[in-house]
Amino acid sequence: MTTAPTQPQFCPWCGSPLPYEAHEHQPRHVTLADEASARGDEPPPLPERVEELLSGDSFVGACPGCRTLSHVIGHHAQD
After folding, report:
1. DSSP line for 27-59
2. Is the pLDDT score of 1 beyond 60?
């Protein structure tokens, strides 16, 4: 059995090999919670499992084949 690569390897648009780089990001659910707090609202808490699923590793790469900039979030499968 093989293991999954630690980062994406190909352009999702054209399939060309693509050297992605790690990219810092704030998970979308955190951004939405911050915006709600700024309005004075308190969003309901997400289950821990859902937060883990939504908080993946972020990668960015510029494809030399189709000249598209791709931002990919790598989510980890649950055991």
Report:
1. -HHHHHHHHHHHTT--PPPPPHHHHHHH--EEE
2. no
